[in-house]
């Protein structure tokens, strides 16, 4: 409490404050039998007791019993409560009888991090454990293929390419009896869609395999096992929270930049001797925050995707060794990689979902230490909502992970990969979605078809080698002086790498000189490290095509969900001062020729009522503002991040909200299913703001393509109030020009 009082006093420098403090204490899960009493091999029991495990938790014992009977299980329990042991103990018991398991971790770093932990339990068991990933040399691979280990640790990327390109690897993977997918919460969006298809290929599309999943921070059901793994199973639950004590604080930024405030707070914590991790959700924000922190005496390293692997590994090692006091990270450090004991976590922005909040906060105070967690709440609609309702922030339910198993871009990757393995596949032997993907590949010239049989071609192998499980769209390579310094996936690359944009990498500043979407290259040049400004793109979105998948009435409104073809056109950008208290514009640049990119995704179309006395401008102010607040509400009801959903508004009253990810992520579908609740939250946002007629706390969107013009909080409030009365609205098609 002394620390919190000192921090609160320090925050007054920026007129910020600790708005709410919540102390979390969680008891251990319910105990089960003593290890010496359970029916396991005596050597395994001796190893468990030697490792300090003398008694199992009840949920561990329940999960173990099911796994020993080859039942499909999802194990859900909080951080540090023994999930790994719950699946590892029965699999080691099976290993001593000659059965093999494949443990799948989402990253190479996490997979290797688990190796030493697993080896602690295998002493004297005559059970071999090996890692197989892209970093393993040819000789080690040969030994693994010739003498397969009882426990193989790998990642989905390795399985994806290995199944397609290596007969030895196929035999190794398909020869296992059990498969574990740890860190299930990571597999949302595109990565979740890819995982499902990788498992489909392991089981030869629709066969049977034994799968165990584990996570601490998701809402799981038997339906999730079917969607994510393609198998029937059941859920075993421990406790929903982490072990130990944590002190959570919501910080009211009171209009101050969240990045500046997070950097300042990190400086205060580091000076107090606390090892600190700052989370952001944007690669560029990670770089910017680390630069700002230097002004407050904190030298924070950066850990994010898109930088060289060697740089990330160096940061991890320095954290473990204690030579680094702080780091700014994107979700790359959400996972359970061993980076030593952290004292505090700062979330520079409200995380995309409550599941991610729980996961990130669990990184502080491990190993029986108190953890301090600070969440900076800014002027966004949802942040303002939680400042009014702080208890609701901590009492939220965990949301299920969202992904889209009909994402055709993902399916094309795995259809081509499976065909490359088999060389030929009959149309009649494939499920309908796989056939549709094959037909798309035929149109693109990647595969061929003759008399109902698909054949791999010379282009199939090149296509498969170029694919990634971490994206569903093309990736733009960023280079400076001919050297690669980063990469960005489309369509996000349009917003970060348009000509004139300020791009940050490894705490260095660059200006984008050229973006070539044909060659997928962006050329940047170095500028001074603290240019004092940042950029935001101006863009328009056009809905080209819509194919309805389903429809329903929501509060009397006709709402359709389906497949969309969109064109994004960046028309220029705005330059902002980096250090002003409020966003201050330095200038605006418009291109003679917009930069455009067309792609397919999924989303919903809502038809709102017209208000007779409103002219065209008043109607657009209402519809555009309502689009913004519904997307904001999606953060609560659908677990969406600030960039997962985007929208378009039409003068006809149609509002389009779509997945920003190519092919679809599943987030817009969850919003479609929970739209009634989204309108309730949207009304709370616009009704309780104290601004005149629109501000960042209610209807402004930091990612708005037209710089938050044509918005009215009051008109949106009237429109939503009218919607909640449930009057029927007639359906028709979008008409007129879009706002964004």
TrEMBL record:
<feature type="domain" description="Helicase ATP-binding">
    <location>
        <begin position="64"/>
        <end position="236"/>
    </location>
</feature>
<keyword id="KW-0378">Hydrolase</keyword>
<dbReference type="GO" id="GO:0003676">
    <property type="term" value="F:nucleic acid binding"/>
</dbReference>
<keyword id="KW-0067">ATP-binding</keyword>
<dbReference type="InterPro" id="IPR011545">
    <property type="entry name" value="DEAD/DEAH_box_helicase_dom"/>
</dbReference>
<dbReference type="Pfam" id="PF09369">
    <property type="entry name" value="MZB"/>
</dbReference>
<dbReference type="GO" id="GO:0036297">
    <property type="term" value="P:interstrand cross-link repair"/>
</dbReference>
<dbReference type="Pfam" id="PF00271">
    <property type="entry name" value="Helicase_C"/>
</dbReference>
<keyword id="KW-0347">Helicase</keyword>
<dbReference type="Pfam" id="PF00270">
    <property type="entry name" value="DEAD"/>
</dbReference>
<dbReference type="InterPro" id="IPR018973">
    <property type="entry name" value="MZB"/>
</dbReference>
<dbReference type="InterPro" id="IPR027417">
    <property type="entry name" value="P-loop_NTPase"/>
</dbReference>
<dbReference type="GO" id="GO:0005524">
    <property type="term" value="F:ATP binding"/>
</dbReference>
<feature type="domain" description="Helicase C-terminal">
    <location>
        <begin position="264"/>
        <end position="414"/>
    </location>
</feature>
<dbReference type="InterPro" id="IPR001650">
    <property type="entry name" value="Helicase_C-like"/>
</dbReference>
<dbReference type="GO" id="GO:0006289">
    <property type="term" value="P:nucleotide-excision repair"/>
</dbReference>
<dbReference type="GO" id="GO:0043138">
    <property type="term" value="F:3'-5' DNA helicase activity"/>
</dbReference>
<protein>
    <submittedName>
        <fullName>DEAD/DEAH box helicase</fullName>
    </submittedName>
</protein>
<keyword id="KW-0547">Nucleotide-binding</keyword>
<dbReference type="InterPro" id="IPR014001">
    <property type="entry name" value="Helicase_ATP-bd"/>
</dbReference>
């Amino acid at each position: 409490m002394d620390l919190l009082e000192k921090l609160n006093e320090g925050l007054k420098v920026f007129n910020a404050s600790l708005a709410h403090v919540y102390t979390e204490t969680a008891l251990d899960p319910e105990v089960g039998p003593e290890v010496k009493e359970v029916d396991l091999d005596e050597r395994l029991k001796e190893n468990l007791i030697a490792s300090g495990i003398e008694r199992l938790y009840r949920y561990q014992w329940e999960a173990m019993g099911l796994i020993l009977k080859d039942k499909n299980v999802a194990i859900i329990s909080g951080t540090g409560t023994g999930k790994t042991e719950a699946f590892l103990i029965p699999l080691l018991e099976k290993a001593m009888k000659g059965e093999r398991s494949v443990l799948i971790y989402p990253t190479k770093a996490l997979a290797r991090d688990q190796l030493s932990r697993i080896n602690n339990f295998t002493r004297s068991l005559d059970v071999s454990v090996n890692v197989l990933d892209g970093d393993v040399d040819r000789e080690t691979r040969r030994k693994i293929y010739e003498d397969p280990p009882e426990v193989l640790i790998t990642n989905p990327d390795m399985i994806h390419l290995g199944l397609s390109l290596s007969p030895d690897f196929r035999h190794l993977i398909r020869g296992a009896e059990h498969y574990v997918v740890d860190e299930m919460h990571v597999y949302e969006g595109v990565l979740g869609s890819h995982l499902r298809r990788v498992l489909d290929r392991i089981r030869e599309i629709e066969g049977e395999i034994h799968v165990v999943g584990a996570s601490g921070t998701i809402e799981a059901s038997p339906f999730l096992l079917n969607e994510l793994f393609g198998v029937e199973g059941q859920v075993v639950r421990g406790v929903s929270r982490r072990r130990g004590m944590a002190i959570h604080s919501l910080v009211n930024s009171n209009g101050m930049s969240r990045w500046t405030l997070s950097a300042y707070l990190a400086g205060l914590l580091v000076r107090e001797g606390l090892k600190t991790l700052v989370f952001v959700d944007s690669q560029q924000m990670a770089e910017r925050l680390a630069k700002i922190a230097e002004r407050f005496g904190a030298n924070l390293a950066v850990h994010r995707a898109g930088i060289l692997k060697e740089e990330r590994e160096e940061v991890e090692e320095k954290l473990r060794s204690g030579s680094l006091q702080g780091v700014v990270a994107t979700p790359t450090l959400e996972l359970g990689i061993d980076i030593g004991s952290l004292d505090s976590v700062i979330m520079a922005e409200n995380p995309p979902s409550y599941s991610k909040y729980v996961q990130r906060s669990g990184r502080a105070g491990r190993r029986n230490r108190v953890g301090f967690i600070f969440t900076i709440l800014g002027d966004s609609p949802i942040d303002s909502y939680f400042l009014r309702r702080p208890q609701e922030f901590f009492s939220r339910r965990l949301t299920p992970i969202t992904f889209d198993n009909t994402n055709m871009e993902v399916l094309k990757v795995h259809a081509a990969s499976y065909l490359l393995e088999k060389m030929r596949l009959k149309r009649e032997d494939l499920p309908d979605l796989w056939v549709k993907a094959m037909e798309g590949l035929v149109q693109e010239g990647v595969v061929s078809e003759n008399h109902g049989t698909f054949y791999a071609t010379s282009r199939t192998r090149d296509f498969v080698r170029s694919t990634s499980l971490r994206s569903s769209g093309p990736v733009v390579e960023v280079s400076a002086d001919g050297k690669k310094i980063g990469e960005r996936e489309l369509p996000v690359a349009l917003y970060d790498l348009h000509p004139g944009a300020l791009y940050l990498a490894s705490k260095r500043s660059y200006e984008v000189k050229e973006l070539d979407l044909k060659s997928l290259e962006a050329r940047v040049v170095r500028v001074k490290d603290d240019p004092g400004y940042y950029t935001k793109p101006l863009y328009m979105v056009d809905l080209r095509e819509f194919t309805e998948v389903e429809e329903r009435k929501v509060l009397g409104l006709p709402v359709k969900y389906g497949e969309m073809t969109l064109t994004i056109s960046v028309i220029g950008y705005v330059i902002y001062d980096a250090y002003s208290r409020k966003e201050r514009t330095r200038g605006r640049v418009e291109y003679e020729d917009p930069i455009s990119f067309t792609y397919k995704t999924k989303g919903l179309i809502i038809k709102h009522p017209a208000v007779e006395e409103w002219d065209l401008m008043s109607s657009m102010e209402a519809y555009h503002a309502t689009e913004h607040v519904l997307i904001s509400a999606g953060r609560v009801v659908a677990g969406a991040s600030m960039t997962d959903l985007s929208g378009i508004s039409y003068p006809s009253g149609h509002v389009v909200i779509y997945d920003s990810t190519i092919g679809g992520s599943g987030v817009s579908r969850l919003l479609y299913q929970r739209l009634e609740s989204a309108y309730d939250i949207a009304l709370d946002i616009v009704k309780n703001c104290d601004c005149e007629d629109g501000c960042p706390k209610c209807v402004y969107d930091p990612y708005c393509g037209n710089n938050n013009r044509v918005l009215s909080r009051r008109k949106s409030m009237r429109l939503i109030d009218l919607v909640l009365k449930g009057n029927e609205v007639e359906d028709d098609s979008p008409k007129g020009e879009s706002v964004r």
